[in-house]
Amino acid sequence: MAGNCFIPISPELNQVIALRRFVFMAILAAVVVLSLGCISPTDEGGKAAEKKSAGITTLRIGYQPSTHQIAEIVAAEKGWWKEDLQPFGVSSIEEKEFQSGPPEMQAMLAGAIDIAYVGTAPTITAIAEGLDAKIVASVNINGSDLLLRPDKEYSGPKSLEGMSIATFPAGSIQDIVIKKWLEDNGVDISKITFHGMGPGEAVTAIEAGKVDGVFLPHPSPSKIELDKKGITVVQSGEMWPHHACCSLLVSGKLLREQPDLVDQIIKTHIRTTEYVNANPDEAAEIYAKRTKQDLAVVKASIERWDGEWVSNPEIQISSTVEYARVDKQLGYINKSLSEDDLFDSSFYHQALAPA
Known about the structure:
355 residues, 5-stranded mixed β-sheet
């Protein structure tokens, strides 16, 4: 039957067919290899673009309304954050203001901010609690004053016993500095009543006569003095010379996934710190306008404070490690922390390296 017709194929024809199949498969394989070779740069470029687009587009910055952190405010007001970080895919800057370091660190622990201008002491507590972040640059040293009401007499640290002092909450720079200073001078801190407050609340408290004194970062001390409601008796640089204060803290995620962005963040911080030091009057005007504080108070603060705006993280290492020891002693943290737990200075040195 025609449907079952079988035509025999000679061995020679079989060889030809096999050869043609081999040649066809070889050509097909070559085409695939060549195609992969042609598209691989594009594919790698696509992956690079995908990695860049997968990075943050909004940088969330935590800061406090203190002249200690004036560099952050100047960088924001001059548009340097947005201008410098735009090439790295950052299209907007979101600033979040906090009254002190402890609540700022709680926000960072919750993932609400990416970088923080914050005291190194609250940073210690947060890292001890599991915060994935490192200090990459300094912001300032010293810069807080102890003031007493004009009707209170001061004759040394022991004379504070029996008084009530408003300062930042437990675990803050001010809390650690004043308690260490008091204990170093033989004062029983249990005989002093400490009230943890933000700057505005503390200023109101001393001016209303509800506390005997305050220990606050600038510009609050200058406002109290200009209002004639308090007198500076000790500056923090006298309590602890060249102590670390505010620092630039960056999340571990950002450090690992976008090191080039971190590099530029530090470069912008260095640039702004140098600008503020070279142009303090303009910086004061920018700060006063941004925070709606009296310009006379801000200028007086910059003239009177014992602080210094800096950027090199190594300036802060020794005192910050000592903060960690005091924190553990006071029971604020339950483990010891080292320099490596708290700092990564490599990004700072990379930012200073010639292009």
